[in-house]
Amino acid sequence: MTATPTAHPDTARMAWATGLTAFAAVMLTIAGVLDIFRGIMGIAQDDVFVATRDYVFRLDLAGWGWIHLILGILAVIVGIGLFQMATWARVAGVVIAGFLILANFLSLPYYPVWSVVAIAISGFIIWALCVARPEEPLEEPPASAGATPRAL
């Protein structure tokens, strides 16, 4: 009776890393597209946003719109790079997601619920890009002790 072979731990780790990178790519692309729409709404001075007085980080609504539009475009570009498993895209993805967190924190008074959701999404993107390392070389499986090829 033979035992069924199990997946090699490195193969499982590579599958996990690829899956997390794909998750980050999808989420960063979605966050980028939503930020593009949010930027367009801010530039158009849509009535969706709440005007808050006496906020420390006060910018014109169009200014916030341009910031979100630019970050959204960059996020989509980096998300596409993540689909290709590019190392530059992993680094840029962490940086862009960090900037998205800052921009959403600073725009909390203008759109509070979505800002908190976007901060959480960006946090998951950073986590997925930092925890998975698909570019690490796979190690050779350890040879079993005392195993020598048998002659027939």
From TrEMBL:
Pfam families with a match to the protein in the record: DUF7144 (PF23636)
Answer yes or no on keyword Chaperone. no
Q: Which residues form the DUF7144 domain?
A: 21-133
Keyword Ion transport in annotation: no
Membrane-spanning ranges: 20-41, 61-83, 88-107, 113-132
Coiled-coil intervals: none
Q: Which UniProt keywords apply?
A: Membrane, Transmembrane, Transmembrane helix
Q: What is this protein called?
A: DUF7144 domain-containing protein
- Give the source species: Streptomyces thermoalcalitolerans
